[in-house]
Design goal:
homotetramer, alpha+beta, Thiol Ester Dehydrase, Chain A, six-stranded antiparallel β-sheet, about 20% helix
Amino acid sequence: MHEIQVTVRFSETDALGHVNNTSYFIYLEEARIRFFESLGFGLDSKNWNYVLVSAKCDFVSQAYFNQKLLIKTYVSKIGTKSFQLGHDIISNETKELVARGNVVMVYFNFEQQKSEPLPDLLKNALQNFLVHS
Amino acid sequence: MHEIQVTVRFSETDALGHVNNTSYFIYLEEARIRFFESLGFGLDSKNWNYVLVSAKCDFVSQAYFNQKLLIKTYVSKIGTKSFQLGHDIISNETKELVARGNVVMVYFNFEQQKSEPLPDLLKNALQNFLVHS
Amino acid sequence: MHEIQVTVRFSETDALGHVNNTSYFIYLEEARIRFFESLGFGLDSKNWNYVLVSAKCDFVSQAYFNQKLLIKTYVSKIGTKSFQLGHDIISNETKELVARGNVVMVYFNFEQQKSEPLPDLLKNALQNFLVHS
Amino acid sequence: MHEIQVTVRFSETDALGHVNNTSYFIYLEEARIRFFESLGFGLDSKNWNYVLVSAKCDFVSQAYFNQKLLIKTYVSKIGTKSFQLGHDIISNETKELVARGNVVMVYFNFEQQKSEPLPDLLKNALQNFLVHS
């Protein structure tokens, strides 16, 4: 599994004293961008082949300012033109599950504005991270 | 259905030129807080009886800086201790669907740190917004 | 003076229970964009003639979730190629000063990547909002 | 000088293709929190002795998604009950100055809700990072 670590920033908390729900989606975006980079399919604004069509996060336990969170990323499904990523957000200290995310991405040709079959190179790279649930 | 309008802020866009996916969850939070207020169950940090246990958003079409978005909120499910809200985010101008959200909320006693059955008053209020899908 | 109202979103607060300092700069950006619109110099990503070269905010009193804030915008200085905007952020209920912002903007030709003298039309429009301090 | 590195997140950019001005204040907050930690005056929401009374950032050159930024933090002024921090935000690759921040902080007793003289221990720690401009 691919793994990154983030430390909760103060601006990511809210008046309930914990990490605001919207901040988890920042972490998921960060995790999937680093994941693509690690595959050799790094993104930049000029060369972007993915469309996020759905994002979901289940909030299991609370996280707090300054907490170190591990975000483990794996592939939860591979389709013809789309794939899904799963993310486990875990407290680095206690290894407790904090949140679990899942996103659906479509391979997209921005010039022609239409989805396209996943190139074999990407498909093979994703295959290595496929976790059967 | 309950309805609010937001105008996309510049800081909510990203380098792809459209609204960043994380910003939609800000809109969903805003919509559900206004919805609770309209029910007479307004929230403040001292009196917060809900826990968000899951949030999901399907991104259907893109939205842009300065666009006016309508967020329609309805109740998609009522359980014993939990309920779900659905949100349709719609372009105010074209009435095109931009995104569709769904969140799961648990009624929660923060003092005792445990979930509790929905009070009848809240249950009845939610009932009026229940949409059978 | 130009005036907008914002209601503090929950995601804009932090674990100290008040509005996070970074959120005030979101409000300032919102205020100046609406100000430019009101002048007939509305912005869109394809037609953007300003560069923000400095932003400052003095935090005078705290603001909280759900609070309604008035943001009054005026012109604090007009130069040849640049101008400054002042912003008073005020509690709508108590009229207490919450924060005071000041930004420096340069008129900028993005195609040629260089600053340019303010066009007369803009200069005159700004003049109407000039407040001598 | 104290130094941290941040990598620009995608959600921190805007539709102009660069880092949004509000994101720099997130970086400044991150830098000063790490700076306090390094001094042995780490912050947590229960033990917070500082009030930010002013924040300023001059934007010198643009930064972009995925760029690595160094944030150098130093003490720009020490008063009786307050002090100022300066921050140089620098491109890690080119060492070009991207932005320069300055914040004013007051030592504050939250229980009694009043400012207090800087404790000697803190004053001495700050002294080591004082840069005369």
